[in-house]
């Protein structure tokens, strides 16, 4: 029987990531729960085994429940009845299976009924679900909105809402509006305080809300009358049980049909404030969006895996001109490229997730009353910065790679890929939104460019190059028993890219702001080319049987892509912008 976890040993490999020991120690508060909860781990090895058990359960559900339901969900989709969104019938089956398996509230603390998993393992679960049906991953993964309640809500709010999420109730984040898409400072949904009832009231419209008729909503609204920017926005909890919100419309979309995208009308809806007023966008949404962007990166890797699986299976079976098409160079080139992008993207995903886990873990120690040592404060600062730098790179590169892999999966299928009976067309339709929602790739570039110009990424590259070969550093079997894979020549080629990258970034600093913005996407992708090359080389050094082929292919791809961007940047001038500006 298929299992989307055990069928892909790459996932288990990342449970052995060099940072996982620190991640788990912090997440478990050094195993203080072991005396309070029967299911709490007693040490690192016990915790990892628990992760594996849960990942295997999800892998079974994904392969044998969610994926078999995916075509029906895509065809039926959600529908509107009397102002309420009704899921596709098979989506209800998926949700019921998830609840019965105890896979809701995965990342929440045990005291609220959760499993206390770190972002790294939650991302693995998200990847597995997305490989089965990325539209259902949207619904399932929005349970992570409870992180915002945990981090910024009161203890009373945590105790009322988080156990409901752990029991299987759904969540949404209601941010965008008809006139406020990427520019959330323009949000105008009005929040007023009802003195008589001692609560807040929400009035207005929200648009493009994923899972918009959920049980529990986090709503961005304007609480400060007379303001027009982000400083007048606050975050609120809306409970569907209280009424006051209707679904006016469900969008008819190109893809992710099972994920309802709703237009909501708030009519004097009762709500309660999260944290403090005026911090809704400045602090709370920024934290929420960073988590969502990591989730889209995991979603992208999962769909990339599905696209590769479909293309590989078809190429092995389809015969033309007397032989299987997988034997044709044009086909195996596409397959190798897909696999290299998938593996490099996954490596970036779990590197980023580990960074997030360490800084979040240290923050949680503070939240629980623990005074951090000077060394821990420095560690918090370091990993917060790394997470902030890597998250836009991770979301941007993986969502773009996912789109390319879904495109290539159709190409491998040839004319059959254009026929609706084949799964690859659905993957292609579903993938298109990944580089748009939760911040377009262009916005990920905006978020990352300061780390390009201030040298953060360059310093990371140099530090990674200074590290000993991964297998040698780990003292692994791979080092003791040479596999025939020698990463040294590939590292030399990446070193050359780093030297050229330093020159390109230095030149970029001399440009005016508009020209810098114009070439920023090129710098962003050059950054991804190098960092992902270094990461996949590290992984191949430890597990050549899993990653050596992808490392060889990816570095070659990265060099070609890097050279293209380098040439563009080297020849750009202020005058060239006139050729690109819209008239």
In total, the number of strands is 11
| SS element count, helices | 20
* Through-space gap between termini: 59 Å
What class do helices, strands and sheet pairing give? alpha+beta
Poorly predicted runs are 471-481
Largest sheet: 7 strands, mixed
On the 0 to 100 scale, the average pLDDT is 95
Estimate the global geometry from the Cα principal axes: globular
Helix content: 55-70%
Beta-strand residue fraction: 5-15%
- What is the radius of gyration? 24 Å
Describe the structure.
- With 583 residues, the chain is of the alpha+beta class.
- Helix content is 59%, strand content 11%.
- It has helices at residues 9-14, 20-27, 44-76, 89-101, 119-132, 134-141, 146-152, 155-166, 280-317, 329-367, 374-413, 423-431, 441-453, 456-466, 470-474, 477-480, 488-508, 513-542, 544-571, 577-580, and strands at 79-81, 84-86, 171-174, 190-194, 199-210, 216-222, 233-239, 245-250, 261-274, 319-320, 323-324.
- Strands 3, 4, 5, 6, 7, 8 and 9 form a seven-stranded mixed sheet that branches. Strands 1-2 form a two-stranded antiparallel ribbon. Strands 10-11 form a two-stranded antiparallel sheet.
- The longest helix is centred in the last third of the chain and has 40 residues, at 374-413.
- The termini are far apart.
